[in-house]
Design brief:
Elements lengths: L6 E4 L3 H12 L4 E4 L3 H8 L10 H7 L4 E4 L2 H5 L4 E4 L14 H10 L6 E4 L7 H8 L4 E4 L9 H6 L4 E4 L5 H11 L6 E4 L1 H32 L3 H9 L20 H14 L5 H13 L3 H6 L9 E5 L14 H11 L3 E5 L4 H7 L4 E2 L3 H5 L4 E4 L4 H4 L3 H7 L4 E4 L6 H6 L3 E3 L27
Parallel strand pairs: 1-2, 1-4, 2-3, 4-5, 5-6, 7-8, 9-10, 9-12, 10-11, 12-13, 13-14
Helix pairs in contact: 1-3, 9-11, 9-12, 11-12
Amino acid sequence: MSEKEPIGVIGAGWVGLVTAACFAEVGHRVVVREIVPEKVESLRRGEVPIHEPQLPELISRNSERLLFTTEMDELLDGPRLIFVCVQTPPTYSGDADLSAVQRAVEEIGEPDGRALVMKSTVPVGTGRAIQREAPGLAYVSCPEFLKEGTAVKDFLEPDRVVIGAEADDEWAADAVEDLYRPLGAPVVRTDLSSAEMIKLASNAYLATKISFINEIANVCDEVGADVTEVARGMGLDPRIGSRFLNAGLGFGGSCFPKDTQALKILAGNSGYHFQLLNSVIEVNDLQKRRVMAKISKHLDSLVGKRVALLGLAFKPDTDDMREASSLVLAARLDGEGASVVAFDPVAQGPARALLPAVEMAGSAMEALEGADVAVLVTEWPEFAELDWADVAKRMSRPLLVDGRNFLDPVAVRDAGITYEAIGRPSAGDRSAVVRVAPGSEAEDADR
């Protein structure tokens, strides 16, 4: 069997590490170039700087195939396919900051038969612009569709692989397709602009589905319907499907908010008003604040009250705090005069700098001790296993707002706790289902 060709990866962030580790897992030697020396040193010691299930094991198991370096020369010594996995955050105007992408193109220098494979999410037209700036450098758009918490599985068992290239770069597109062929996924071959748009359109559609069910939940609150039953009935229609129909506090993470805004900006810069997407963004912003109304039904004032947040990360199985609902909620609670305490199994480290006024507890039970209100923010499985009778005894006033419709309402109420959810009747729930679903409203498709 011939040796698999080496691969280069620029950027040792979430996408870069998952891409590198998974390609190493299927037999490729991978050189990862990262500009932060401390991160390179920690990776060489086997220390993974992000929380992603299975990723540390993959990096450890394939350490002989993975080279982490700060030197561009080492990256370019061998690999002809260079995957760009750098951040493209929004600027103050809302447009993507492509400075890291441009720096990577400049540092690659002379093409020398190499191809740049773009994994980072970029505006439509970026590929063609780079081709004009760096003639001779082959360019392939290969957007990623990974979800935090299941990224390794998503990479090794993809539902599709999108490859965009122009006619002159067909050899590079063929080479990228060869890399993914062992994974057995359907391959979409298209032009550069269409590949770039597929990524933005996919995330915007999923965000739309989330905001829609949250709007339905808000109506259910007004008319006494149960959004979990409504979503169950809707989801059985194959034209709709059940995923991303869990109502709650709205979507977060690094991609849904960023990509919906990016598509809105792209449309606006092109002279088109994307009215539906504007509404999706507005609904999501407002949804994160609706917990306050749930609390106000039971408390006249939050001044001096102790509020426990169960979960901080934007979704379970990650320590990512980007656009997390907890950030908005903690700020609102603090503004109302409440004392906020929180517990998250993995995100408290990143959260401390973002939430300096929030007390970090050592466990869920410690956070709940003496609390007047508890809000479930992140649907970590361990929260579903709490002893609710014990919780009721520990809380000063047993009031719980389930911001993800995640808990068993009957078990919580039977323990003597006042239970509020999103779009569900306040009392007498017929359903006692604990929902642990990967398609929760917080789920993010990629980085």
